[in-house]
Amino acid sequence: MSTPEKKEAALLAELKQYGSLAVAYSGGVDSSYLADAVHEALGSRAIMIIADSPSIPRRELQEAVELAKDRGWNLRVIQTREHDDEAYLENQGNRCFYCKNELFTRMEAEVSALGIRVLAYGAIEDDKGDVRPGTQAAENHQVVAPLQNAGLCKEEIRVLSKKRGLPTAEKASFACLGSRFPTGTRIDLASMTRVERAETVLRDCGYSQYRVRHHGDLCRIEIDPADFDRMLAERQEIITAIRAAGYRYVTMDLNGYSTGSSA
To answer: DSSP for 12-80?
Structure first.
């Protein structure tokens, strides 16, 4: 069985073959590792592109930009407007397609004048078993998935990220704020902002793995079951703060947080 180090060697070899590359960067575990590997392989011929949109919390964006600057990556911030697309706002199960389609379209426009023809994103081996509408958008735009091509899974990426000194090595999983709305519930920017404020409450309280699921006036908190006792002890403080963020009812999901769970 190939080791993470051998997979990384194969990854770097593939990246060098592209000559130049634009990476869809988000500041998450996978895209940060990919960005660092691409920077190593291609240097100034690599561009990391991060989307500034309402579906990305301001703190996440700020931390991603700061990481890119600290690592010396060639970063560009672009504006995406998936929230202007009715098909995205209707949230009928394929929201991710419209989001990624907008991202890749804007990326193509950003790098075309620079002579960069290949886009890459951080899909990994673990994603193959999931239903991911964004994958179709990537295929439509011929976006490559180098981490997946190398057979790298999440835990291996965390190990390799740690060796590179990336602060994202232990970062909790994250998904865009649009994922907090149940399928069929229309997304609106005011509610998305409310979700962001509520999740900021949990972050400020020191929780690392969480989701605030939006159900109108009610929010449903998902956290690691190991944090249940702590949250119950702090419930009054959390309820007060989340109500101030705009929710009338605050609940805790006894199933807890699990990777890939939906709103």
So the answer is: HHHHHHHSSEEEE--SSHHHHHHHHHHHHHHGGGEEEEEEE-TTS-HHHHHHHHHHHHHHT--EEEEE-
Which tens digit of pLDDT belongs to each residue from 132-186?
Answer: 788 999 999 999 999 999 999 999 999 999 999 999 999 998 889 999 999 999 9
Helix (H, G, I), strand (E, B) or coil at 212: strand
Residue 215 phi, psi (nearest 5) = -135, 65
Of all residues in the chain, what percent carry a pLDDT higher than 70? 97
Q: Residue ranges of the domains in the chain?
A: 4-170, 177-252
Residue pLDDT, tens place only, 180-234: 999 999 999 999 999 999 999 999 999 999 999 999 999 999 999 999 999 999 9
Instruction: Give the pLDDT of residue 263.
Output: 56
Through-space distance between the first and last CA atoms of the chain, rounded to whole angstroms: 37
Q: Which residue in the block uniquely carries the two structure tokens 């890459």?
A: 120
- 4-170 folds as Rossmann fold (3.40.50)
The side-by-side arrangement of strands in the sheet containing 119-120 is 75-79, 46-52, 21-24, 119-120
